[in-house]
Backbone:
C-alpha cells in the first residue's frame, strides 16, 4: 500500500510528510528558542505565571535583593516577567515572556542589556499583538511564522530558524530532518563537500555516489549529494539537499534536508529501506514538496 502524505506548515514554509510519521519540531525567533506550552484557561495561565514569578522572587542577588523586578502586561493577556540575568551583578535583564494565542501559550525566554530594556519590551508588545491560533485542521494563511498550531503574524526581519525531525513509522534506523535558518552559506553544498566526498568514496569499500548535482525545487536554488554503501550486508545512506539562502532574507533562508542510515543495533535493512529505489522515492517526494508558504512574507 502506497504511503499517504500530508502538508505540514512550519516557520514560513510548507513540506509534505508521511501521514504515519511522528514529527518533532523546534523553533527559534530572533535566535531565542520558543517553547509551546499545553493549552490553559485563564485561571491556569495565571497560576503558571504566578509560579514562575515566585521562583524568581526566591532567587536572591549578591546585593541581597530578589532577582525579580517586575511583571509587564502585554496585549491579548500576554505577560513578561523581568528579572536580573546574573546573581552577581545587575548589568543585564532576563525576560520570561508568555504569549497567548487563543488557548495556546508560547514561552519566549531571552535577555538583554539594561540599556536595551525599553527596546526589548517594545518588541514583546509588538509580538503579543500578532500571535494567533490556527484553526484545527487548517493550513495557516497570510504573513507569519508558524509554531505548531499558532502563528506569529509578522514579517519582522530577524534570525529565525526551525528544525523538523521526521520519525518514520517502521523505520527506526532512518534519521530524516528538515531545517531552515535565516542566513546564507558562504559556499554551495557541492563546493564545500567536494574534497571530503572524494576521500570518502576512495576510502570506504562499497561506497558509491548516487547523485551529485544542482537540484532546484521550484524557484529554490539548491544542490544535492546522495551517497550509499554496503557493509556486512547492510545498506547505509547519507543524503543531503541544501539551498544556500540569501543573507537576512525571510523569503530565501538557508534550507537543509538530510537522511541517514548508519551503523546501529540493527544488522539488516529491515528497519530502514528495502532498496535504493524505496529510499529515493521517499527522499524525492519530500524534497520536491518544500516551498515557501504563499503570502508568508
Residues:
Amino acid at each position: 500500500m502506497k504511503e499517504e502524505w500530508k502538508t505540514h506548515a512550519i516557520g514560513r514554509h510548507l513540506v509534505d510528510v508521511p501521514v504515519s510519521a511522528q514529527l518533532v519540531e523546534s523553533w527559534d525567533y530572533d535566535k531565542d528558542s520558543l517553547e509551546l506550552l499545553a493549552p490553559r484557561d485563564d485561571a491556569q495561565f495565571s497560576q503558571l505565571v504566578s509560579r514562575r514569578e515566585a521562583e524568581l522572587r526566591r532567587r536572591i542577588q549578591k546585593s541581597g535583593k530578589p532577582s525579580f523586578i517586575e511583571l509587564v502586561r502585554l496585549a491579548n493577556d500576554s505577560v513578561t516577567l523581568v528579572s536580573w540575568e546574573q546573581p552577581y551583578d545587575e548589568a543585564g535583564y532576563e525576560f520570561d515572556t508568555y504569549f497567548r494565542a487563543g488557548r495556546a501559550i508560547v514561552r519566549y525566554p531571552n535577555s538583554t542589556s539594561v540599556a536595551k530594556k525599553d527596546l526589548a519590551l517594545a518588541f514583546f508588545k509588538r509580538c503579543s499583538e500578532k500571535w494567533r491560533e490556527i484553526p484545527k485542521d487548517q493550513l495557516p494563511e497570510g504573513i507569519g511564522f508558524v509554531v505548531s498550531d499558532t502563528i506569529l503574524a509578522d514579517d519582522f526581519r530577524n534570525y529565525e530558524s526551525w528544525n523538523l525531525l521526521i520519525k518514520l513509522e517502521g523505520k527506526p534506523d532512518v534519521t530524516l530532518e528538515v531545517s531552515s535558518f535565516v542566513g546564507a552559506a558562504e559556499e554551495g553544498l557541492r563546493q564545500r563537500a567536494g574534497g571530503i566526498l572524494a576521500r570518502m568514496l576512495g576510502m570506504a569499500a562499497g561506497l558509491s555516489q548516487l547523485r551529485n548535482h544542482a537540484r532546484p525545487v521550484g524557484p529554490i536554488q539548491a544542490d544535492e549529494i546522495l551517497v550509499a554503501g554496503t557493509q556486512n550486508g547492510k545498506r547505509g545512506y547519507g543524503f543531503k539537499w541544501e539551498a544556500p539562502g540569501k543573507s537576512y532574507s525571510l523569503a530565501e533562508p538557508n534550507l537543509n534536508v538530510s537522511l541517514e542510515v548508519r551503523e546501529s543495533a540493527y544488522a539488516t535493512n529491515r528497519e530502514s529501506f528495502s532498496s535504493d529505489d524505496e529510499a529515493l522515492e521517499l527522499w524525492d517526494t519530500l524534497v520536491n514538496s518544500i516551498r515557501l508558504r504563499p503570502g508568508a512574507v
In short: The longest strand covers residues 92-101.
